[in-house]
Design a protein that fits this description.
about 400 residues, mainly alpha, 16 helices, about 75% helix, MFS_trans_sf
Length: about 400
């Protein structure tokens, strides 16, 4: 993909080029360490003796880390600066990926928390970096690194099983190999450590606008964000296992997850055009929920046509994410209130998302099959659709 930025001066052009490359390489690390787990989760369970509930907790840990460490990232950046904090996060991510893959008791849990904490830092600080250094190209560069992370995430899910092979411990290689991307990103980020600049966070203390925490609209957007994230991460964590229970091979199930994620990428790109055509965002919200419900309901009722259902669910997931991110601005009166709404929605949203894989795993253990978990997931999607519809109304937080 091509990313153009505002023309720099001759003296800053090399740094700007390295910065753009560094941002895109960091983006390759934002989701691959997460989406590579689902296709080999059965191997992890068998090798470590985990129950389905414990496996659900394992897949939820990065999301809990997102919720817990996101508020800390700006505090660290105030002391170290953006560049150095991102460099520190790269080091923590590399350590977490390696630790998660070594055959040491408990290492998989500690490593998973570490990589989740690192990615939480990227999630919070990369938008700040883009806004600071590319104020006229925020949407363009943000879209580029979002698409990059989604594409690599899809590839990671597709190649996990082939990399793991038939060895009982092959899953360790399939999860650990992604440290290579982190090392490459760190190498390109080194010049930025010498370009240290202080990080000053904008304070919302003086904002006279209503807090989203005390607003019905704020909670509607937040619950829409949280529930659509819950459904997405349940699919990423459990889809390969669900398909394998219906006789699909592990390799095929991994590539089906790849297709689901690619459909989401396509929806990411199509969403802005669709939102312009359907100016009533309530229609876009209903379309999101309908596509996801068709996909999950299809897996429940006719699993033999899984590819069709996954394309539908993936497109709905990608569309709902873009709508959520847009609502942070559309439902706020200014950028300060938008930041407050975004912080609220992402902190609560990741907590909700983290509960999804655990809940589905527990329901699978309790019922011995996937009918009850998928039925409950359909109910969650219907509730999500209600909050999405409310969020789509054309009004702002007072």
């Amino acid at each position: 993909m091509t990313v153009s930025v505002a023309p720099p001066s001759a003296g800053t052009r090399p740094r700007v080029g390295l910065l753009v490359v560094g941002i895109l390489l960091i983006a390759t690390n934002l989701r691959a360490a997460l989406t590579s787990v689902g296709p080999v989760l059965d191997d992890v369970r068998a090798d470590l003796g985990l129950t389905a509930t414990a496996a659900g907790v394992l897949t939820a840990l990065p999301l809990l880390a997102f919720a817990g460490f996101s508020p800390l990232a700006p505090l660290v950046a105030r002391r170290l600066g953006l560049e150095r904090t991102i460099g520190l996060a790269l080091a923590v991510l590399a350590a977490g990926i390696v630790l998660r893959s070594v055959p040491v008791t408990g290492a998989i849990w500690v490593g998973t928390v570490a990589l989740g904490a690192a990615i939480a830092g990227f999630n919070v600080l990369l938008p700040s970096l883009v806004k600071r250094d590319f104020p006229d190209r925020v949407a363009q560069l943000s879209g580029s690194y979002s698409a990059t992370q989604s594409i690599v995430a899809a590839v990671a899910s597709g190649v996990a099983v082939p990399i793991a092979g038939d060895s009982p411990g092959g899953w360790r290689i399939a999860l650990g190999c992604w440290v290579g991307l982190t090392v490459v990103a760190a190498a390109f980020w080194l010049p930025q450590l010498r370009a240290h600049r202080s990080f000053a966070a904008a304070s919302l203390a003086g904002a006279a606008h209503r807090s989203p925490w005390r607003s019905a609209i704020g909670w509607q957007v937040t619950l829409f964000m949280g529930l659509q994230s819950l459904v997405f991460y349940v699919m990423v964590a459990w889809l390969p296992t669900i398909e394998q229970s219906h006789g699909v091979t592990a390799t095929t199930a991994g590539w089906h997850l790849f297709g689901y994620l690619i459909a989401a990428v396509a929806a990411n790109l199509a969403a802005p055009h669709l939102m312009r055509r359907l100016s009533d965002h309530r229609l876009v919200a209903l379309l999101c929920a309908a596509l996801i419900l068709i996909g999950v309901g299809g897996l429940l009722l006719a699993p033999g046509a899984a590819v069709v259902w996954l394309i539908s669910a993936g497109f709905g997931a990608g569309l709902s994410l873009v709508l959520c991110l847009s609502l942070f601005s559309l439902r706020a009166v200014d950028h300060q209130q938008a930041a407050a709404l975004s912080g609220m929605a992402q902190s609560i949203g990741y907590l909700l998302a983290a509960s999804g894989p655990v809940l589905i795993g527990a329901l699978r253990d309790a019922s011995g099959g996937w009918t009850l978990p998928l039925t409950v997931l359909c109910v969650v999607i219907a509730v999500m659709g209600g909050f999405a519809f409310q969020s789509g109304r054309d009004r702002v937080i007072g």
